[in-house]
């Protein structure tokens, strides 16, 4: 997947994601992402400061605020797409962006709770170009800090003490349960020889789509929107999440490690049944059959962990030959188009609509 963007200091010119369904305009998405960081980070840091030692330090390391030795750091804190969406969600409902800040922080806390646990479960040693928390501070701290961030997310919302906060917390709790369902499905699929495309999409809708959907509605709820408006924004986020994950799946196999911060062929190393793999296996034909034979043998192999780069590259080539890469790129475009269409169901300021569209475009052209 080609990209014309980074997340800092650049405008996004939507082109070729995956492509023609992406709007033809240039928007400074960086400003939206930076606004999300600027408004949410002080509240996020204040929440993390409530944690008992050493969890506060471990969490600060995970967020990139300090290095492994505890020195201040300007580490990569992630793309900040979810906070940006939460603030725009509030504005879509006619409220000020600031009304969405508690929602932005709550969603970011849940997202990072999931990352801490996912890294440990997947055995990932690198995230955002640094050693993961479990690698530096141990598995126990990764589990405890993840749990603490989840608890903080609900605290941040409920301490507002408003009816809107209660509604927002219900949406966040529901999204978190779906996220956990998706992670459980993802892990179980690693041990199955075949997974259908429908099962994979359901898993990714839970694992990624649910929390993005929540981000897109939680600000509106806190801003006083009715359930119908919040539900439409949530549907936009769900389809955006599926597009986001489709791109993530492509990057998980063909992404540049310098951009992604992960190993080459990272999803193949973890035997993930991601969309390109599942689509390739479902395609039929010689490449699909050969891929199925190799993956079946891999599942029984005792020396899988010592496979060479060439062996993973050969599997990636078969996925591409069978059509898995192109199918996934098309799915990213399709979900992007549906997300944009859904937005027509909400009456909102045109500037906000354009910004939500620009963030959707960013999701399908990103390279990390």
UniProtKB/TrEMBL annotation:
Gene3D superfamilies, alphabetized: Farnesyl Diphosphate Synthase
Official protein name in the record: Polyprenyl synthetase family protein
Keywords per UniProt: Magnesium, Metal-binding, Transferase
Compositionally biased intervals (Polar residues): 1-19
Lineage summary: Bacteria, Bacillati, Actinomycetota, Actinomycetes, Kitasatosporales
Pfam families tied to this protein: polyprenyl_synt (PF00348)
Organism (species): Streptomyces castrisilvae
InterPro entries documented for this protein: Isoprenoid_synthase_dom_sf (IPR008949), Polyprenyl_synt (IPR000092), Polyprenyl_synt_CS (IPR033749)
Family matches, as CDD domains: Trans_IPPS_HT
Similarity annotation: Belongs to the FPP/GGPP synthase family.
Region (Disordered): 1-24
